[in-house]
Amino acid sequence: MFGDSTVIGQLDHVCGVSWAPPRTADTLALLAVQHNKHVTVWQLCPRTSETSKWFMSQTCEIKQSFPVLPQGCVWHPKSAVLTVLTAQDVSVFHNVHRDSSQVKVDINPQGLIHCACWTQDGQRLVVVAGSSLHSYIWDSVQKTLHRCAFCPVFDVDSCVRAV
How far apart are CA 158 and CA 146, in angstroms? Predict the structure, then answer.
């Protein structure tokens, strides 16, 4: 009905999964697997002997102090940069291929964090906390986030649940 499927791995207590955006043909596929208080990032590549079989290996494990939100893994649209959200924290992991180097987003929300998204060009991250949108500019060279100078916080009249 849905075509061929292949079991690529078995994991316990999975709360969600998120594929990194497709890149060039020579890069490996990345998959973020959400568990309660941690995220594992896996890379998948075809086995050379059988193209229908996949090899799955873990690249990093990201541990959080608080539970990861249901839609708490947000990939950068153009690179292997993963944003992980909890109700209290936002962290950007810019080196998921080798380790879990991170940038903590400097946010003092007036309420719980609900969601986040990257702009299509990957230059801004917007985080929703309570009834406010917090805008950050991503410096891909320095691997840092800076509050947007012209509109760092945009308040709306009601609680935002998705962007």
Answer: 25
